[in-house]
Amino acid sequence: MKDSKKDIRALTREELRDFFVEQGEKAFRGNQVYEWLWTKGAHSFDDMTNLSKETRSFLDTHFVINHIKVDQMQRSNDGTIKNAVKLHDGLTVESVLIPTASRTTACVSSQVGCSLNCKFCATARLKRMRNLNPDEIFDQVVAIDQQSRLYHNRPLSNIVFMGMGEPLMNYKNVVASIEKITAPDGLNMSPKRITVSTSGVPKIIKKMADDGVKFKLAVSLHSALDEVRTDIMPFNEQMPLHELKEALQYWYMKTKKRITYEYVVWRGINDQDKDIEALIDFCLAVPSKVNLIEYNPIDDGQFQQADPEAINRYVAKLEDRGITVTVRRSRGKDIDAACGQLANKNG
Ligand code: SAH
């Protein structure tokens, strides 16, 4: 009869309080349960030790806590940890802990598979797709925070939505998860330490600006020329660059927050001066900076990392125009945990 029980994390604090009152109990029990669920990340009623045994088993007859399970954990020799995360319905996603000298970043998934079709991304090849619920995203953060404390002796400091899936195609649940992660009665993390990375869905970028979200925005640009971008990110045909640019201008006007462009330079695809000039134009339209990220090969070699000279040309020309640019090396490549390598390939 497991299925007839309601997932307790679908309830608001108010609804939990009301539930207890209806049962002839005190409303503050609802607060206690809420705190166990959203501040302490409890996955079992038995963990709720300030409730009586009777109350715990009573909750157990009415509710379930659908939660993720870290099924497999791989540790890279650079300290990166990749988790294969089992969802309550048996599907799997991946999340990654990325340590640096000063911080620990959680890279979390927002969907099972992805509906976009970026040619260079391993996740795009996974057919099966569903959106993650807010608690499934929340649980990834809690699991990585625990690993950070255990293996790196410090709490999690940053979160990036750069795992599997396109966060803006699951906008409602992503925002709901961030609310729990940042709430004072949740994990109480600062939204300034959270980055949502998108392939660029103009309509939702505008909605985010209207909603006044407080997290940071990164856009996977990879090319500022429509013909090139459509080739490697075919959805660009439906959402071309001028729409993206307009949405980003709107974002900046409303939020005053600078945008980060994620950009991989590939040999023979976007390594020419015309590509650099187009990127410069795009950058000058909205306050922004560029992250040049290393390509992580996923296949037969259709895509190859550009020569160092091409990267250096990008850096020099961008800097020359006053645009901030960083070159980012990938982490966790030996365990397929780097950008674009997440494809449920474990072991
Ligand atoms: N869908 C979101 C978030 C997931 S991808 C987005 O597109 O932003 C996270 C980043 O990894 C994106 O910038 C994506 O373009 C990049 N990426 C995808 N495949 C890659 C690969 N094989 N090598 C390097 N980066 C890759």
Descriptive notes:
With about 350 residues, this protein is of the alpha/beta class. It has 10 helices and 14 strands. The model has no long low-confidence stretch (mean pLDDT about 95). The structure holds S-adenosyl-L-homocysteine. One of its GO terms (molecular function) is methyltransferase activity. Belongs to the radical SAM superfamily. RlmN family. Specifically methylates position 2 of adenine 2503 in 23S rRNA and position 2 of adenine 37 in tRNAs.
Short descriptors:
alpha/beta, ten-stranded mixed beta sheet, two-stranded parallel sheet, 35% helix, binds S-adenosyl-L-homocysteine
User: Can you list the ligands bound to this structure?
Assistant: S-adenosyl-L-homocysteine
Secondary structure category: alpha/beta
Assembly state: single chain
Apparent shape: elongated
User: Considering DSSP H and I runs of 4 or more, what fraction of the residues is helical?
Assistant: 25-40%
The major β-sheet equals:
10 strands, mixed
One letter per element, helices H and strands E, the order comes to: EHHHEEEEEEEHEHEHEHHEHEHE
According to DSSP, the number of beta strands is 14
Q: Report the sheet-strand fraction.
A: 15-25%
How many DSSP H or I helices?
Answer: 10
Mean pLDDT: 94
List strands and helices in order, with pairings:
Elements: E1 6-7, H1 13-22, H2 28-38, H3 53-62, E2 63-64, E3 69-75, E4 81-86, E5 92-99, E6 104-107, E7 111-112, E8 130-131, H4 134-152, E9 158-161, H5 171-182, E10 194-198, H6 202-211, E11 216-220, H7 226-232, H8 241-255, E12 259-263, H9 273-285, E13 288-293, H10 308-320, E14 324-328
Parallel strand pairs: 1-2, 6-9, 9-10, 10-11, 11-12, 12-13, 13-14
Antiparallel strand pairs: 3-4, 4-5, 5-6, 7-8
Helix pairs in contact: 1-2, 4-5, 6-8, 9-10
The structure holds S-adenosyl-L-homocysteine.
Residues 120-121, 162, 166, 197-199, 220, 262, 264, 293, 295-296, 298, 339-340 line the site of S-adenosyl-L-homocysteine (SAH).
